[in-house]
Design brief:
The chain is about 70% helix and about 0% strand. It has about 210 residues and is mainly alpha-helical. The longest helix is centred in the first third of the chain and has 30 residues. It is globular, with a radius of gyration of 18 Å.
Length: about 210
């Protein structure tokens, strides 16, 4: 067997293990995430996995790293099963519990944990893969469905008592969008302009209030 063939076989096995894990984790999230999490939901996890795949393809990420990225996206909010506080750290612990049983090496697990921690706000990714997941997690900021998804987050933060009115929410969004920046060339070129347009709409709303 050639080195290339052996590598292909290794990635195929890892990808199959990822697909098994995906079914288990999505099912666990669907059954056990608190119902008041209207934003941090299974839909969000699937959205981040989808965004990761698109950004990774454009960034020409190799097969192994793509699997690691999708795995990190799958686990990045599992910590919400135990509450919102320090959920990224808890997500890393949950990932660690599963990954060695599904053929992930210690090095791969550490990379995945680094990616999960890169989604913590304020985002501070240190590697290219961490930048990709950080951008995928907030991909919606620069999309047409920004306000639809934003309403889900507004609902969730209202439930936690973090925001008490639509004006509070718009002020929070304005501050967040002004301080946020994308890291990958792909996200900058495909999302930055629309993110600014979304911010401009929020600013207009605030002027009317």
């Amino acid at each position: 067997m050639t080195f290339a063939a052996k590598n292909l076989n290794t990635f195929s096995i890892l990808n199959m293990e990822y697909e098994k894990l995906k079914k288990i984790i999505i099912s666990r999230l669907r059954e056990n995430l608190p119902e008041h999490l209207s934003y941090h939901s299974v839909m969000h996890v699937k959205d981040v996995i989808d965004s990761v795949e698109k950004i990774a393809e454009a960034e020409k990420v190799n097969e192994e790293d793509l699997i690691l990225l999708k795995t990190a996206a799958l686990f990045h909010d599992t910590g919400f099963l135990y509450g919102s506080k320090n959920h990224e750290e808890k997500s890393c612990e949950i990932a660690e519990e599963y990954l060695s049983d599904y053929g992930y090496s210690e090095l791969q697990t550490e990379k995945i944990k680094g990616m999960i921690m890169a989604t913590k706000i304020p985002q501070t990714p240190h590697t290219h893969l961490e930048q990709i997941l950080a951008d995928a997690d907030l991909d919606y900021l620069g999309r047409d469905d920004f306000f639809v998804i934003g309403d889900k987050l507004f609902e969730e933060l209202s439930m936690f008592g973090i925001v008490n009115s639509e004006r509070d929410w718009n002020l929070l969004q304005e501050k967040f969008l002004e301080s946020h920046h994308y890291f990958t060339e792909t996200a900058i070129s495909t999302r930055k302009e629309k993110k600014q347009a979304n911010l401009d709409i929020i600013k207009r709303k605030l002027k009317k209030d």
